[in-house]
Specification:
Ferritin; mainly alpha; 256 residues
């Protein structure tokens, strides 16, 4: 198998990270006008804006690195399903409030470690994106942790439903720590993050918060994979991009 060139790997890598932010940001935005309170709606929308903002910066850098005259919009609105390489965890449905909080908690714990490591990248632009994003995801982790503790250590029903959310979403977390060809190629030059090395610290964060929430950490087992490495998504993903890309697909090149 031919090894990716550094340029191709960089384009793939920046877009891959951006895909995570765009897809979970889109999911979070679906809570607009549906959250339990105005305060919670504002908090989720701020998280969504942070994530989409991160994806914009990464898509813009991917377009610049590719040098084919594309823009961030090409990556968001003009790629097909298999071209997206987000982690599957980001695309699962919102479910109830507990499902959304648990997904945000799992991703935020990962993102805090990931962006802290990316801030040390030998690529100055990725390092800058990592440093800026770290401030944002630190808040996301605090917000989701506090809510998860409230749910887990709350009523009997909230505890039971929070545990169910943890158990059902756990199978998607293993993919976070798998390495793609692009990541392995760039790791040689100190550009990418060795996500496999983040697993132990991620587990520690998860265990500490779940303990405070009186929730049980599931045992590692079979993990859902395919989105990040192969562009093979859940059955929910097609609906996301159909909604997100409708205007550009219906009216190509339209602008506000």
């Amino acid at each position: 198998m031919t090894e990716l060139s550094k340029q191709d790997a960089l384009v793939h890598y920046a877009a891959q990270i951006g895909d995570n932010g765009l897809i979970i940001g889109h999911r979070m935005a679906e809570w607009c006008f549906r959250a339990p309170s105005i305060e919670m709606e504002m908090a989720l929308m701020n998280c969504a804006l942070d994530m989409i903002g991160q994806s914009r910066e990464l898509y813009s850098y991917a377009a610049e690195a590719e040098g084919a005259g594309k823009t961030e919009d090409d990556f968001a609105y003009r790629r097909d399903e298999k071209d997206f390489r987000n982690n599957l965890l980001t695309e699962v449905p919102n479910g109830d409030w507990g499902d959304t909080i648990v997904r945000l908690f799992f991703m935020s714990a990962y993102n805090k470690l990931f962006y802290a490591a990316l801030a040390g990248s030998s690529d100055s632009q990725l390092a800058a994106i990592g440093a800026k994003s770290l401030k944002e995801v630190t808040y996301h982790l605090r917000f989701s942790s506090e809510w998860l503790i409230r749910l887990g250590d709350g009523t009997e029903e909230s505890h039971e439903r929070a545990q169910k959310s943890v158990d059902s979403l756990w199978t998607y977390t293993g993919e976070l720590f798998t390495m793609t060809d692009a990541e392995n190629r760039l790791l040689k030059d100190g550009i990418s993050v060795d996500v496999a090395a983040l697993k132990a610290d991620w587990n520690e964060i998860i265990e500490q918060v779940l303990k405070q929430a009186t929730l049980t950490v599931p045992a590692d087992g079979w993990a859902q994979t395919g989105g990040k490495a192969e562009g093979i998504h859940t059955e929910y993903f097609g609906y996301i991009i159909a909604d997100m890309q409708y205007m550009q697909r219906r009216y190509p090149g339209c602008e506000w």
